[in-house]
Every structure is written in C-alpha cells, then in structure tokens.
Amino acid sequence: MNSLTPAEGPARTAICVAARWANVRRGVEGGQLLRVADGRMLWLLRDGQPRTLRQLAEELDSEQSTVNRQVHAALDSGIIVRFRPQDSASYVVTMSDEGEARFRSDMGRLTSVYERALAVIPEQEQERFLEHLGAFVEGLDEASRATLVP
Known about the structure:
By secondary structure, the protein is mainly α.
C-alpha cells in the first residue's frame, strides 16, 4: 500500500474487485454486436413498449440531448424504428427486427459468459452469492448518492 490507496480491509478489496470487474466487463462488451449505449437502450425497449425521447432519457438517467444523439445513431444503424402514434404530438421509438436480432445475439453471448463465470462458484452457493452481490450493488448505489448530497 502507498499513500494513494486505502488501507487494507474490505473496502479496499471491494474497490480492487470493482476495478478488475470494470476492466473485464469492457472486454466482454467489446465483443458484442451492439455498442454499450445501444445495448442499454434496447434493454429498456425489450418489453415492446414504445417510448418517447423524454421517457428514454428519464429511464436511462441521461440528458435528453445525449439520448437524442444516441437515438439518431440507433436509427441510422437500423436497430430501432421511430413513428408517431395517431393522435400524438410526440414520436416514439421501439426495437426493430434487426435490433432484436442483435440484442438476442448479445444476450446469448452474455448469458454464456456469465454462466461460465458463475461456474467457478459452487452451484449450491451461486444464489446466495448473487443475493449478496445484489445487496452490495444496492448499498453502493445508496452510499454513492448519499455522498453527493451537500
């Protein structure tokens, strides 16, 4: 340890594991057919419910201008379609057939990768591990939000 890193302990270990996971995740995402932003958008649209740009921005917790650029790029790549429902002033977007095909392919690959990764944990402990991981992520989210409050 040096003065730039936290003292030994569970928090330091969690930071190191999270950093390693982020690097590995970027490698996994690099092999996907969809860009990360496209995957996040299609994850929301997988339920088949058309959404306005404003709804997407809210659900993605992103600025509307950012989502607008992402939607235009997704339209250009053919993974979503845009239309205006009858009696509506706003356009909505939904997943295209091409988007669904790419999303299914990526989800199949991700499922395979995560199943292989989970296989290093004894089967009888996998559910408990995932419960703890979910609780940790929720706690991390709450703690990070609490530190943003002045």
